[in-house]
Specification:
It is globular, with a radius of gyration of 22 Å. The protein is an alpha/beta fold. 38% of the residues are buried. Strands 1, 2, 3, 4, 5 and 11 form a 6-stranded mixed beta sheet that branches. A 5-stranded mixed beta sheet has the order 8-7-9-6-10.
Length: 340
């Protein structure tokens, strides 16, 4: 595997520093034994692990509990052009996501924002019932003309934006931390704001104009940990202190497949294969294959793990896929980390 002069492994994540991907990478790996390397785009994180002389792992966002699957990541996993043939999912991490509106306060008001401007549970409930109740917060945000953030963050904060910043220009950028970075670069006279984490605001010297502005209090993002299956076959291993995690039911497996143009019911027959083998499907996604119109690549998550190339119930199911699919690809098995 790749290492540095100090023998530390390298982990790519969607940057800049203080992004939610950075926070997930810190939680999974830390900085004592690993070097964390920010990437400008999700595809750069994929490429860095595919290149065996670059990073050993990557941490990328896969889905949000409010906004759904991250299409950028889904398309890279589909890998229509076979740019990442060796990448496998080897881990996951669930990160609670609490968005903040960050920026520079209006120069007409004190830089020390009062507590009444926090978007807390009481303010949210009052605003939904009577928007006039939150007029003080609305006035404090009147100077904002542009908001920067990642598309997913905009989608997770629709209620707040519709109530307080309706009609304000939205500029999509590569990550929430990049959004905070842009607002900081524009200077204290800027009329821009960003949706990002409180950590990003601290790092870039911005004020919290409103806190916890996401639509759902339990908003959470699931991140995948990627490895190169050819140069890094072992990847992440279950902790010896958690023997229960060695059971098949404590694992997940990701598989992609395509169907030939066959009679109706073929997709149902493919999914039935997993039921016949006692394997529980936990999610299904699809993306256009681009081979022809209305032809799709399906990605499914299955409870269980693949052990080697032969033996085990997962390999039996995969062999049965040969009869019903145009082609399939195993994209990795990892320990289920879903909060209970």
């Amino acid at each position: 595997m790749v290492g540095t002069d100090s023998h530390k492994l390298r982990v790519a994540f969607l940057g800049p520093i203080a992004s939610y991907s950075h926070q997930a990478a810190l939680a999974c790996f830390g900085e004592e034994q690993y070097i964390l390397e920010p990437q400008s785009q999700i595809k750069d994180a994929f490429a860095s692990v595919q290149a065996t002389d670059s990073c050993d792992f990557a941490v990328v966002p896969f889905e949000n509990s409010t906004y759904g699957t991250v299409v950028f990541t889904l398309d890279l996993l589909v890998d229509r052009e076979s740019k990442y043939p060796d990448l496998l999912v080897c881990g996951e991490y669930y990160l609670p996501v609490h968005h903040c509106l960050v920026g520079h306060p209006s120069r007409r008001r004190s830089a020390n924002l009062s507590q009444e401007h926090a978007w807390d549970d009481d303010n949210q409930m009052q605003a939904n019932c009577n928007p006039k109740r939150s007029s003080s917060l609305m006035k404090s945000l009147q100077h904002i003309s542009t908001i920067y953030s990642h598309p997913a963050a905009f989608g997770q904060c629709e209620q707040f934006l519709s109530l307080y910043l309706k009609g304000v220009e939205k500029q999509e950028v590569s990550s929430t931390s990049r959004a905070a970075e842009i607002v900081a670069e524009e200077g204290s006279s800027s009329r821009s704001a960003a949706i990002s984490s409180g950590l990003a605001a601290d790092i870039h010297g911005l004020k919290l104009l409103a806190e916890s502005i996401q639509d759902q209090d339990d908003n959470s993002t699931r991140f995948f940990v990627l490895k190169n299956g050819r140069s890094n076959p072992q990847g992440l291993s279950p902790s010896p202190h958690q023997p229960s995690l060695l059971n098949d039911d404590s694992w997940k497996t990701l598989i992609s497949f395509t169907l030939a143009q066959q009679p109706s019911g073929t997709l149902a027959e493919v999914l039935q294969i997993f039921k016949n083998h006692g394997l529980n499907l936990t999610s299904i996604n699809s993306r256009p294959s681009l081979e022809e119109k209305w032809h799709y690549v399906f990605l499914i998550e299955v409870q269980g793990k693949r052990e080697g190339l032969d033996g085990g119930v997962m390999n039996q199911a995969l062999k049965d896929l040969d009869r019903k699919t145009k082609g399939w690809k195993w994209l990795g098995s990892w320990i289920n980390q879903a909060p209970t």
